[in-house]
Amino acid sequence: MWISGRPGVSMSRIAIVFCSLSFIFLIWSYGIPHYSASSRYPGPGEKVVDPEEYTPGQFFARTTTTTESSFGAATGIPKPRPETSGEEDPEILEPTPTPVVIPPAVPSTKSCLTAKGADDIMVVLKTSATEIYDKLPEHLLTLFQCTPHYAIFSDLDGVVAGHKVYDALENITAETRAKNKEFQYYDKIQEYGAEGQQLADLKGEGTKNLDKWKFLPMVYRAYRMQPYAKFFVFIEADTSLSWTNLLQWTTRLDSRIPIYAGAPSNIGSIRFAQRGGGLLISNAAAKLYATAYDQKYVGKWENRTATECCGDVMVAIALAEAHVEFYSAFPLLQGETPATLDWTKRHWCAPVVSWHHMSPNEIDILWNFQQAWTKKNGWQTPYLIKNAFSEFVSPRLSPSRSNWDNLSQDHKITRPADDEALGEGTAWYKLSDADKNSTLSFDYCKATCASYADCLQWRYKTGECALSKVIKLGRRVTGENAESKSGWFVERIEKLTRSWEPCEEPSWSFNQ
Where would one find coiled-coil regions in this protein (predicted)? Predict the structure, then answer.
C-alpha cells in the first residue's frame, strides 16, 4: 500500500522511525544526567538553597548541612538523621552527580569564602553593647565578608546592620545576677537598649566587669550553633585575624584531637590563652567542653566565675576539667601590634595569624595588605612575620624621629633630679661617664647606644636615655610625653635581619 503517492514510505518504516525517536527521547530524559547549579539533586543531609535568598557571610543564611563525606566522618561524629514519621529513610540509589563546570577564559582570584578550609571554621567575636558601634563595623566590612560561619556575642541581643548579635549573658541564673553587682550594669544596658539610648554612655569599669561572664556561655553556644565545625576561633573586637594564614594553619591540624591553643599567659598556676590573641578550640575539644558544661556550669562553673579575674582564665579552668590540655600557639596567635611586637629571629619565619589592641584603622590597613598578598601569592602561601616587618616597620625606621617612643627598654639610664643623689655611694656614681652623659641630650644617648655592639635603637627625653637590642617600632606620643625622640641604627638592623634569612619553611609548630 502506498501513502501520499510517495514511493518508499510504508507503515512499517514509519513505525521504525517512531520507535527510534521514542528510544532517543527516553535515553535523553532518564539515562543522561543534566547539570545546572540550580537544579542539582540535593545530597544526603543537604538542603536546597535558593541562590536569591543566600547572603554570603551571614551565619544563619547558610542552610547547607555538612555531610558525612566532608568532615563528619573525619571527626568521628555521626551524620545527623532527618526527623521522620516512623518510615524508613529513602534509599539513595546513586551518588549526587557533580556539576560540569566550564573554567573561565581568564583565571580569577579564588574567593575568600570558598578558599580551602573556609567552610570548616567558626569565627566568634565577643564585644559589648557599649563599644559595638565603634569596633564591630570594621569586622563586618572585612573579616566577616570571608567567613561562611560566624557569630557575634555581646551583652545585648539585637541586630547591627542586618547582622544578628547574641546576648551571651541571657541565661545567667537569677541567683548569680542577684549576688554580683556588675549585673546592675547589665540591667541598665537592657534598659538603654529598649529605650534606644546611647549605649556608649555606659562605658566604664562596671560594664567591663560583665565581660568575664560571657566566655563560658559563648563557647558553649558557639559549639551548639555549629557542632560540625572543625575549629572554633574566638576573638575580641580589637583583634585582627589573618584569614589566609588561619586557613593554612588549621588545614594542617587534626580536629579530632582535643586542642585548646593561644598566646600563653599565667595567673598563679593557671596557664591560659590570652583572649586578645584569639582562642583556637578544635571540634573534639569543644565537644568535651559542651558535655562538661551541661554537667558543671550551673552547679560549679558559674559560681567559680565570680571568684576569678577574667573570662579567659575561666575557659582554661573549664577546659582542664573537661580533660582538654592547653597548647602555646605563640607567635602564630599573639597579643601585640606591629608597633609593639619584638621583631626577633625567634619570630622571623613564623606566619602571623592574629594581632591585638588594633584600632579599626589598623585592622583595615592589615586587611588590605592581606588582600593584596593573596591576590599576588594565592591562598597556599602564608605571609610571615618577616613580610609584616618589611611592610609595616622597616620603611618607618630612621636615625631620628621626634615625638616618638620606640619602646626601647633593655637599658634605661635616668639622671637623678636631686643633686645630692649624684654623689658617691649611689647607683648613679657607679655608672660610666658615657652612661651618665647619655642623659644630657639625644646625640649623647645615640653615642652611648653606638658604643654597645648589640644596641639597635634608642629613645631620649629630658634626663633619660633608653637603649634596646630588640627592634621595636613604637608610636607617636603626645602631651607630656611629646618630648620623646627616638632613633634606630638602620644599617645594623638591616645586617641583622639579613642574617636571619632564608626562611626555608614557615614555622607552624606550637607546643605545650
Answer: none
